[in-house]
Specification:
- The complex is a heterodimer.
- In chain A, about 0% of the residues lie in helices and about 50% in strands.
- Chain A has no helices and eleven strands.
- Chain B is mainly β.
- In chain B, the strands form two sheets. In chain B, strands 2, 4, 5, 9, 10 and 11 form a six-stranded mixed sheet that branches. Chain B has a five-stranded antiparallel sheet with strand order 1-3-8-7-6, with no helix packed on it.
- The chains are: A mainly beta, B mainly beta.
Amino acid sequence: DTGVSQNPRHKITKRGQNVTFRCDPISEHNRLYWYRQTLGQGPEFLTYFQNEAQLEKSRLLSDRFSAERPKGSFSTLEIQRTEQGDSAMYLCASSFTTQGPLHFGNGTRLTVT
Amino acid sequence: TQLLEQSPQFLSIQEGENLTVYCNSSSVFSSLQWYRQEPGEGPVLLVTVVTGGEVKKLKRLTFQFGDARKDSSLHITAAQPGDTGLYLCAGGETSGSRLTFGEGTQLTVNP
């Protein structure tokens, strides 16, 4: 069990640029989640995959955000035309069972200047 | 959307003191999880409670799930500087698809 891996750990980008983050979950976990966390706040749910199927998306996930999990393994989260309000920590988590404990990665911290 | 409110938002205490953190909601959750998060890292699960009235102990930490499954508490006995961190409660919805997190309690234990 190597844990959930997220890359990059930090990303600084200029407003209007596109960014893509990657998440590699624990290998036997078929559920994968993306959350966003701002400083001093709890994580906010963005989206959830079961295998390759994206089953739920939050209203927070505007049309500038897209997530994929093409083969049911790793996942990518892309933000197009970034805005300063997108600056946050983007956390990926995986789990083995419904309502099972979430195993989080250490996140990607995005700063939009 | 189900909401979880945590209190207090910030807590600064001296080593050796006891403390309680509360997590409240007007909604019923099928399960309640507590996580601890350190700066620059993702949250790490401490405990899951699923039964109304359930009490779980983890060394100096005691977790309780309310009878109605709408609230929970975390009690730490004889706090240590290593307990410093952001404590998050998270409720599992009956649909089972997501966890809803509270805003967290930032605990600082001073030596």
